[in-house]
Fold:
Amino acid sequence: MELADTFDEIKTICDCGNKAIINARIDGNGHIVTTGAQVVLGGNDSYIAMCHRCYETGIREHKIIKLHGQ
Ligand SMILES: [Zn+2]
Structure:
Protein backbone atom coordinates (compact mmCIF):
# COMPACT_ATOMS: atom_id res chain seq x y z
CA MET A 1 0.00 0.00 0.00
CA GLU A 2 1.33 3.38 -0.99
CA LEU A 3 0.45 6.53 0.81
CA ALA A 4 -0.05 9.56 -1.36
CA ASP A 5 1.53 12.42 0.48
CA THR A 6 -0.05 15.67 -0.51
CA PHE A 7 2.36 17.92 1.30
CA ASP A 8 4.54 19.99 -0.95
CA GLU A 9 6.44 21.91 1.65
CA ILE A 10 9.69 20.63 3.05
CA LYS A 11 9.17 18.73 6.23
CA THR A 12 10.94 20.12 9.22
CA ILE A 13 10.14 17.20 11.46
CA CYS A 14 11.90 13.91 11.00
CA ASP A 15 9.84 10.74 10.68
CA CYS A 16 10.93 9.80 14.19
CA GLY A 17 9.44 13.01 15.56
CA ASN A 18 12.68 14.87 16.19
CA LYS A 19 13.41 18.20 14.63
CA ALA A 20 14.94 17.75 11.21
CA ILE A 21 18.22 19.59 10.79
CA ILE A 22 19.69 17.85 7.77
CA ASN A 23 18.53 17.86 4.20
CA ALA A 24 19.76 14.42 3.27
CA ARG A 25 20.30 13.52 -0.35
CA ILE A 26 18.76 10.21 -1.29
CA ASP A 27 19.73 8.33 -4.41
CA GLY A 28 17.40 6.34 -6.64
CA ASN A 29 17.85 3.27 -4.48
CA GLY A 30 16.78 5.00 -1.29
CA HIS A 31 20.25 5.26 0.19
CA ILE A 32 21.68 8.39 1.71
CA VAL A 33 24.28 9.96 -0.56
CA THR A 34 27.45 10.75 1.36
CA THR A 35 29.69 11.61 -1.56
CA GLY A 36 28.93 15.29 -1.65
CA ALA A 37 31.42 16.03 -4.38
CA GLN A 38 29.48 14.15 -6.99
CA VAL A 39 26.46 15.80 -8.45
CA VAL A 40 24.54 13.71 -10.91
CA LEU A 41 22.56 15.94 -13.17
CA GLY A 42 19.28 14.47 -14.22
CA GLY A 43 19.67 11.67 -11.70
CA ASN A 44 17.05 10.26 -9.44
CA ASP A 45 18.31 11.95 -6.32
CA SER A 46 15.82 13.40 -3.93
CA TYR A 47 16.11 15.29 -0.70
CA ILE A 48 14.48 14.57 2.60
CA ALA A 49 14.65 16.36 5.91
CA MET A 50 16.02 14.20 8.69
CA CYS A 51 17.27 14.57 12.22
CA HIS A 52 20.96 13.99 12.80
CA ARG A 53 20.44 10.69 14.57
CA CYS A 54 18.39 9.14 11.77
CA TYR A 55 20.85 10.49 9.23
CA GLU A 56 23.82 8.86 10.94
CA THR A 57 21.94 5.64 11.57
CA GLY A 58 20.80 5.53 7.97
CA ILE A 59 24.36 5.84 6.73
CA ARG A 60 25.79 3.37 9.20
CA GLU A 61 23.15 0.72 8.63
CA HIS A 62 22.66 1.45 4.92
CA LYS A 63 19.00 1.89 5.47
CA ILE A 64 16.56 2.37 2.65
CA ILE A 65 15.05 5.77 3.18
CA LYS A 66 11.43 5.99 2.26
CA LEU A 67 10.75 9.11 0.30
CA HIS A 68 7.56 11.00 0.64
CA GLY A 69 5.37 11.59 -2.34
CA GLN A 70 6.94 8.88 -4.46
ZN1 LIG B 1 14.89 11.12 13.07
Notes: The first strand starts at residue 22 and ends at 26.
